[in-house]
Amino acid sequence: MGKKDQMQDGEEHYGRTKTTIMKEELIRSCAVEEEEKQEEDEEVDTGLRKGPSSGARLWGRVRNTLLRQKLDPQSLQGKDWQRTVISMNGIEVKLSMRFTSREFSLKRMPSRKQSGVFGVKIGAVTKRENSKVPLIVRQCVEEIERRGMEEVGIYRVSGVATDIQALKAAFDANSKDVSVMMSEMDVNAIAGTLKLYFRELPEPLFTDQLCANFTEGIALSDSVAKESCMLNLLLSLPEPNLLTFLFLLDHLKRVAENESVNKMSFHNLATVFGPTLLRPSEKDSKIPMQPISMSDSWSLEVMSQVQVLLYFLQLEAIPTPDSKRQSMLFSTEV
After folding, report:
1. SS3 state at 93
2. Distance between CA 266 and CA 259 in Å, rounded?
C-alpha cells in the first residue's frame, strides 16, 4: 500500500484531515509507520492478534481522536450528542460526547425514591438500616481496603461508568448480590461508587447549616483558636454524619499510609473528597450562577473545602465527647 493510499484510508476511516496526517508524518518516520502497518496486517492474516496489544492501539486512537476534537463552543451548549466511530480490525468504538455545564455536574441529586440510598439523607438511611454508618460506605471501604490500597491513583482514577451505575442500582435495590458484584469489578469502579454516594447526598456530609462555618474556621490564623473551632464544629454534626465522617477519615488515613505505592497523599485525597463532602446544596450555594464571575468565587470555595478536609486528615487524633460514641464508630450493626 502506497503512502497516498494510506493517507486516503486514514481520512476515510478515522475522519482525519490531510493537514493532520501531514503533521503526523513529520513526527513519525516512514519506516516506523510501515513497520506498524506490516505488523497489523500480519496479525489479522495469521489470526495471532493479541488482545491487549490491539486493545491498547485501539484505545490510543480513541484517545487521540478525543484530544484532537475542536468542538464549536456554541454547539457545546446544545442538547445533541456528537457521535464518532473509531474502527480497527473489525472492532468499533462508538463515542458520544456532549457538554455538561459545571453547575449541573456539581449539582446534588436528591432522590424522590426514599427506599434507596443514593440521594437520600444519611440519617434516614442509617435509621432504616439500624446502623451507625451506611452499609454502602462500609462495604465499599471494606472492598477497597481488601484489594485497592496499593492501586495507583485510587479515588483519582475514574472507574467504568457502567459499572458504577450498576453498583448504584444494586445498592438502591438493596440487592443481596452486591458483594459478589463488587468482588468482580475493578476497584476503581467501587471507589467511584463511594464518591458518587457522597456527591449525590441531598446535603453535604458536613451539612448545609455548618459548611460555611467550617470554611470560615479554617481561615483563622491562630492555631489554638482554629483547632478549638474546627473540633467544636465537627462534634456539632448530627451523629450519623459525624460517625460516617470519622469512619471515612480513618479509611483515608490508611490509604495515605500507602502513598509511596498508590501516590495518594493527604493533599490528593483532600482534593478529591473535600468538595464532595463540603459542597453546599444548590439552595445554599454561594457560587454565583453567572459564568463570567463564577470562576474565581468557585475556585476559592473549592480551595477552602479542600483545606478543611486536609486539616482533619493531618490531625493525629480527634477527641470524641464520650467513649460510647467512639465505640459506635466501629460498630458493624446492620
Report:
1. strand
2. 9
Instruction: Over range 82-95, report the average pLDDT.
Output: 72
Q: Residue 309 has which C-alpha cell?
A: 478536609
Nearest to 195 by CA among 308, 121, 276, 255: 276
Three-class SS state of 111: coil
207 backbone φψ class: left, alpha, beta (φ>0; ψ -120 to 50): left
- Residue 94 per-residue DSSP state: E
Give residue-wise pLDDT tens across range 234-286.
999 999 999 999 999 999 999 999 999 999 999 999 999 999 999 998 654 44
SS3 state at 97: strand
Query: pLDDT by residue (tens digit) across 186-238?
Result: 999 999 999 999 999 999 999 999 999 999 999 999 999 999 999 999 999 99
Torsion on CA atoms 266, 272, 198, 159, rounded to nearest 10: -120
C-beta neighbour count of 129 within 10 angstroms: 17
238 φ/ψ sector (left φ>0, alpha ψ -120 to 50, else beta): beta
Question: Are 43 and 49 in contact, with CB atoms under 8 Å apart?
Answer: yes
Cα separation, 131 vs 120, in Å, equals 15
pLDDT digits (tens, 9 = 90+) for 286-318: 444 444 344 566 688 899 999 999 999 999 888
* Separation of alpha carbons 137 and 197, rounded Å: 8
- Name the DSSP class of 149: T
Q: Please name which of 313, 304, 308 lies closest in space to residue 264, comparing C-alpha atoms.
A: 313
Which ranges of 73-156 would DSSP assign to H, the alpha helix? Answer: 73-76, 102-105, 122-129, 135-147
**Residue 130, phi-psi category: left (phi > 0), alpha (psi -120 to 50), beta (remainder):** left
Q: Give residue 327's Cα distance to chain centre.
A: 31
Conformational region of residue 6, where left means phi above 0, alpha means psi within -120 to 50, and beta covers everything else: alpha
